[in-house]
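Let's sit down with a protein and look at its sequence and fold side by side. Which protein we use is up to you, so please pick one and set it down. Label the sequence line and the structure token line clearly, so we can match residues to local backbone shapes. Go ahead whenever you are ready, and we will take it from there:

***
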Amino acid sequence: MVDTKNSPFNRFKAVRKELRYTQSEFAKLLNIPSSTADIERGKTKIPGHALAILMKSFGINPLWIFNESPDKYLSQTIDISPKIITIDPTGVENILLVNQKAQAGYSGNIQDPGYYEQLPAFSLPLPEFRNATYRGFQVAGDSMEPNLQAGDWVIGRAVSQTQEILNGRVYVVVLRDSVVVKKVQRTQENTLQMISFNEFYAPFTVSLGDVQELWQVISKITFGIEDSNSLLFRQLQQSMEDLKSQFKKFKN
């Protein structure tokens, strides 16, 4: 009986889905005409040059695709795991908070234990925040509006290796000279494309070698209610007007 689940075309399809590309986007990335649909149906062989791009850009092991190796990724990976973690007196790992001001020195002090001692730390007794390393970063500027406002906080889960990067997800990217919050897209040139939600800001690329740490954003904390069109804002505004009216009647 043929094992279609582990066939080359199904494993090829699994890689595409994991990297969050459409069939046409994946075809363009791999220099394949039009679409990868025929490959994923088993009608066309996987071109050698496409396998080379997958290996070079994403560390995909070609032998795994052909079910000749249990290792999906090549051993040569870029380690982007957190350089330093801290724990509380009970042995629970802290969630460190890096505000806008602290971010100016974060990249340059990333391996200095003394720097981390200055950062506020807390823990969340929730199952979503177990079995991984998390860190909080404050959002600066307006490049991620309307989804993220300046002053918001994002909680990121640590990414250990570059192969774990998922296209289209929002990450805190710690570069050698800065910290940015962006939607990330991998390219075939061993670079990451940084994309803002605010269309005023053009995308830009960074080399994987310039990435020191990567934190996948899983939640945000916001303290502002600034949308005057929101139902909640209108309800609060009406409640204040009602209180004012009642107060005037009481005085009279």
